[in-house]
Hints:
Layout: H1 3-27, E1 37-43, E2 46-50, E3 55-57, E4 60-61, E5 66-69, E6 72-79, E7 86-88, E8 95-98, E9 103-106, E10 112-115, E11 121-122, E12 128-129, E13 136-137, E14 147-151, E15 156-160, E16 168-172, E17 175-177, E18 185-188, E19 191-193, E20 202-204, E21 213-216, E22 218-220, H2 226-258
Antiparallel strand pairs: 1-6, 2-5, 3-4, 7-22, 8-21, 9-10, 9-13, 11-12, 14-15, 15-16, 17-20, 18-19
Helix pairs in contact: 1-2
Amino acid sequence: MMRALNTAGTGMLSQQLNLDVISNNLANVNTTAFKQQRAEFQDLMVQTFRASGASTGGAVNLPSPVQIGLGSKFSATATNFAGGPMQATGNPLDLAINGDGFFSVQKADGGLAYTRDGSFKLDATGLVVTNDGYPLVPNITVPAGAKAITVSGNGTVSAILPGTNEPTSLGQISTTVFANPSGLTRAGQNLYLAGGASGDAQTATPGQNGAGELTSSFVEGSNVQVVEEMVRMILAQRAYEINSKAIQTADDMLSILNNLKR
Length: 262
């Protein structure tokens, strides 16, 4: 069997997965704080017929090997954690991290998850929660009737409470940094989970020790660049086409071989 059939088939499968990643990026072009992903590939096994430096007799050695690769495979999805554009909202509980770091939230099962999505809301008890109701960690509660809610760059939350004229501190928002954010696992709902190659979660005060400052009344937009994704989509389409041409050519060559004797 001609190797080209299977080799080109692996190339078509790789480009299908490439298009899956590109499509997900485009689908999330307006998702708050979404981080672009990029498909990465590796070559598959390589069949070696002659090794480099092999002796051909006497003192003569081959200057280069004779090898044929057997295709490609999808190896990883790399995440681009570059900051997205800041979008003004006018809501003081909308927070953007201007630099490194994640907000910590508590999921329904009690575990922690991490997000760059700072579009926070208040629940019925005044607790600051995500759009899915997961409370911010450490918890911040805004009493009923509080006015002029302010979040400083270092995460200090203050508000003017009923019956007072001076701001009262309601707590401080901390952020979490990781040695290798690319090792975080996406969990949907704009959440990431720690573990694996991410390193341990390290609590930080915004604006200190490498953690980004908070910006109130702004949210971070998606960092997906539509033009860049369109170029990648065209390249994926062309790569898929040329691999299908290779399969067709290999099939034509087999057909010629099959018709040699009639």
